[in-house]
Design brief:
Largest sheet: none
Helix content: over 70%
Number of strands: 0
Oligomer: single chain
Strand content: under 5%
Structural class: mainly alpha
Low-confidence stretches: none
Number of domains: 1
Shape: globular
Mean pLDDT: 80
Order of helices and strands: HHHHHHHHHHHHHHHH
Radius of gyration: 21 Å
Distance between the termini: 19 Å
């Protein structure tokens, strides 16, 4: 027991964790090193609370859309009600906001496995598939924005070009993988010297089942529509967040904010993307012409919309399913490492 506890704390307090916190501190420094508290608070007092609350409602609605899509990704494995899948999504966001290492992805798989008789590895497969769809949709929007909006910076145009090449390579690899699926599977199993009936073999089979549900579903068109709708609602919500402080973005500005904030969450950081999100958002808002103190206030509002709404509701479901910190970290150590 002592060794297990030591392993947990070793995971929690590790060079990787310290590095992520250091990045967040650097982000806070870069974003707020020039800080006028009186101007900042003056802008915050101008916040329209009704629009702020509406943007939080839209944020939760977007997670509802994600739950709706996840239901169809899991459907070849198990037919689950949208309500429960939505609750698992919320638990995942709660975990990402309060635990290190993006523990929320492990947490929602664990919660789903606890409430339904589904192998956690299969759920992980659908989560990886979900994130892959997010990346592909992001790249498609990036490419479209780079091509059709002449005011985009060169960096975005280069990103769109790189994204287009990446998508092309991905489709080529997917096509080759489809042709060689059986051969690749047998080669992989031989290399790691295990049979499909072993514990590790069954886990990999289960994970692969979750990862490939997209090939088994008759709802591909609906899933593509859901993926696009999720990002459209996300982009539109940035307009609401700005409007809560009387800042009204045009479509080009909304796309730039979307690109920057979506990319920055992939950078290691403290839980909740604190620091990195603020620095990137302040930077793009200043680039778009906002005065620094106003940009800082808007960035704080944008971060607060998701953090407050998703963390609060996610905590409710975290408690509803009787999850706890210790078991969550133990699952990370055993499954998530």
């Amino acid at each position: 027991m002592k060794n297990k506890s030591g392993s947990i704390w070793k995971k929690l307090i590790s060079p990787k964790t310290l590095f992520a916190f250091a990045i967040s501190i650097l982000g806070l420094y870069l974003g707020f090193r020039k800080f006028d508290s009186s101007e900042f608070l003056s802008y915050l007092r101008q916040t329209n609370l009704w629009i702020f609350i509406l943007s939080m409602v839209v944020m939760v609605f977007m997670i509802g859309l994600r739950g709706w899509r996840w239901k169809y990704l899991i459907l070849p494995i198990s037919n689950l009600p949208v309500k429960q899948v939505f609750e698992m999504e919320m638990i995942g966001y709660f975990g990402n906001h309060v635990f290190p290492f993006r523990l929320g992805e492990v947490l929602r798989a664990y919660a789903m496995g606890k409430t339904r008789n589904i192998p956690i590895s299969a759920i992980f497969g659908t989560i990886v598939l979900e994130r892959t769809l997010d990346v592909l949709t992001f790249i498609i929007i990036l490419i479209s924005g780079a091509i059709f909006f002449p005011g985009m910076p060169n960096e975005v145009r280069i990103g769109g070009l790189v994204g287009g090449i990446a998508v092309l390579i991905l489709f080529i690899l997917a096509y080759i993988s489809n042709l060689k699926k059986v051969a690749l599977k047998n080669y992989f199993m031989r290399k790691i010297k295990m049979s499909g009936d072993s514990k590790i073999g069954r886990t990999i089979k289960s994970f692969w089942q979750g990862l490939t549900t997209l090939r088994q579903t008759p709802h591909l068109g609906l899933i593509i529509f859901q993926s696009l709708l999720i990002w459209v609602v996300n982009i539109g919500n940035f307009w609401l967040m700005g409007a809560s402080l009387q800042v009204y973005f045009d479509l080009s500005a909304l796309l730039l904010i979307f690109f920057v904030t979506s990319a920055i969450i992939s950078v290691p950081s403290a839980p909740g993307y604190v620091g990195t999100y603020h620095a990137a958002t302040i930077g793009i808002l200043v680039f778009l012409g906002l005065e620094l103190s106003k940009a800082q206030a808007v960035a704080v509002i944008m971060h607060a919309v998701g953090f407050i709404s998703l963390t609060t509701l996610g905590l409710f479901y975290f408690l509803k399913y009787q999850l706890n910190f210790k078991s969550t970290v133990e699952v990370y150590v055993e499954k998530g490492a």
